UniProtKB/TrEMBL annotation:
This is Neprosin PEP catalytic domain-containing protein. It comes from Arabis alpina (Alpine rock-cress). Keywords: Signal. Pfam families: Neprosin, Neprosin_AP. PANTHER family: NEPROSIN DOMAIN-CONTAINING PROTEIN, PROTEIN, PUTATIVE (DUF239)-RELATED-RELATED. InterPro entries: Glutamic_endopeptidase, Neprosin, Neprosin_propep. It comes from the Eukaryota. Residues 81-105 are annotated as: Disordered. Residues 156-410 form the Neprosin PEP catalytic domain.
């Protein structure tokens, strides 16, 4: 790749230095456009390399993953979060008190990523960061917005091709949420679509001041260059306009764990009529300092979103959502065949449909409590649907998902 740019740049210099270079063509001709194109490509590559210097921090150890990822072990005080002017000079906070009522029974094990299956982890005092490459950024629709969601979201609309099947609660004050999320490898139709399953903590309005905290798993060929399900985080404080990003691709989320790489591939995954695998996630607001912490599985703290990042979420959330989301670009004028969840409808049940189980909330007293007023909603139930329930083992749960394009979803 780089040699092509060097060749183009050399050719450009030769053409510009020759008096007769443009003599055969008038201004703004096709020939002049062809000459200027390599210059734009060179400028884009320079911008990419400048961005990569911000994202990829010097590592004291590097680990190669079987899926092709490079994991850099970066000193925790040098991570991207501390580039934020609001956080400069700080160091990661000490762990907070767990919510009352939290139990580690039946939780997932923390060794759930491909890069760590060999048993190799980053040293204490460092955090694992998935290295971002030039190829990652060249796939992006916008270099300057790399790692960010492109659109302004509305919960009551599937505009811009985003479709949901979610369980949600609203109308109260929410200080966190917990769920176990079934992991699959749904088919994604194109590079410009994705499929994800996550928890949203939401405050503000669905206009310019929306605050969200998000975590779950996603398949995004544009962001990662493959179709592995990957553990991810996201945040915004202005409805996805100028703030926030996926994972550690901007200054924001502070990671404290040396064994989990945000953005790394998840393993194992569930199989149709076979073994089922889920990841347990807990997001809650530390009553003492106000930061929003993220925990995976059996007591493994991943890190936190500093309270200073937010406006409405400085206090609490006013809505929590659980569920799936896909992007539908309507290829060929019809609905996408990108799958949500397992790619099968909720009615197929356990072992076939994807699920969320043990849904809980964190209340004002930092206590985990069952959800009593869960509502479910599917934007296009003939494409992706959802069915809720309650039982003694799973507590509040729902099945959700679907195949996308089918005879009832043209």
């Amino acid at each position: 790749m780089s040699s092509c740019y060097i060749l183009s740049f050399t050719l450009l210099l030769c053409l510009l230095s020759s008096p007769s270079s443009f003599s055969a063509s008038p201004p703004n001709s096709t020939a002049e456009t062809d000459i200027l194109r390599p210059l734009k490509e060179i400028q884009k590559l320079k911008l990419i390399r400048k961005q990569l210097q911000k994202i990829n921090k010097p590592a004291i150890k590097t680990i190669q993953s079987s899926d092709g990822d490079t994991i850099d072990c970066v000193p925790s005080h040098n991570q991207p979060a501390f580039d934020n002017p609001l956080l400069q000079g700080q160091r990661p906070m000490d762990p907070p008190d767990m919510p009352k009522g939290y139990s580690q029974e039946n939780e997932s094990h923390e060794n759930f990523q491909l890069w760590s299956l060999t048993g190799e982890f980053c040293p204490e005092g460092t955090i694992p960061i998935r290295r971002t490459t030039e190829q990652d950024m060249l796939r992006a629709s916008s270099v300057r917005r790399f790692g960010r969601k492109i659109r302004r979201v509305r919960r009551d609309s599937s505009s811009n091709g985003h479709e949901h099947a979610v369980g949600y609660v609203s109308g109260s004050q929410y200080y966190g949420a917990k769920a176990s999320i079934n992991v699959w490898t749904p088919r994604v139709n194109s590079q410009y679509e994705f499929s994800l399953s996550q928890i949203w903590i939401i405050a503000g309005s669905f206009a310019d001041d929306l605050n969200t905290i998000e975590a779950g798993w996603q398949i995004s060929p544009e962001l990662y260059g493959d179709t592995y399900p990957r553990f991810f985080t996201y945040w915004t404080s202005d409805a996805y306009q100028t703030t926030g990003c996926y994972n550690l691709l901007c200054s924001g989320f502070v990671q404290t764990n040396n064994r989990i790489a945000i953005g790394a591939a998840i393993s194992p995954v569930s199989s149709y009529k076979g073994g089922q695998f889920d990841i347990s996630l807990l997001i809650w607001k530390d009553p003492k300092h106000g930061h929003w912490w993220l925990q995976f599985g059996s007591g493994t703290l991943v890190g936190y979103w500093p309270v200073s990042l937010f406006t409405h979420l400085k206090e609490h959330g006013n809505m929590v959502q659980f569920g799936g989301e896909i992007v539908n670009t309507r290829p060929g004028g019809s609905h996408t065949s990108t799958q949500m969840g397992s790619g099968h409808f909720a009615g197929e049940g356990f072992g076939k449909a994807s699920y969320f189980r043990n849904l809980q909330m964190v209340d004002w007293d930092n206590t985990l409590i069952p959800i009593s007023n869960l509502r479910v909603l599917a934007d296009h139930p003939n494409c992706y649907d959802i069915r809720g329930g309650v039982n003694r083992v799973w507590g509040n749960y729902f099945y959700y998902g679907g195949p996308g394009k089918n005879s009832k979803c043209p």
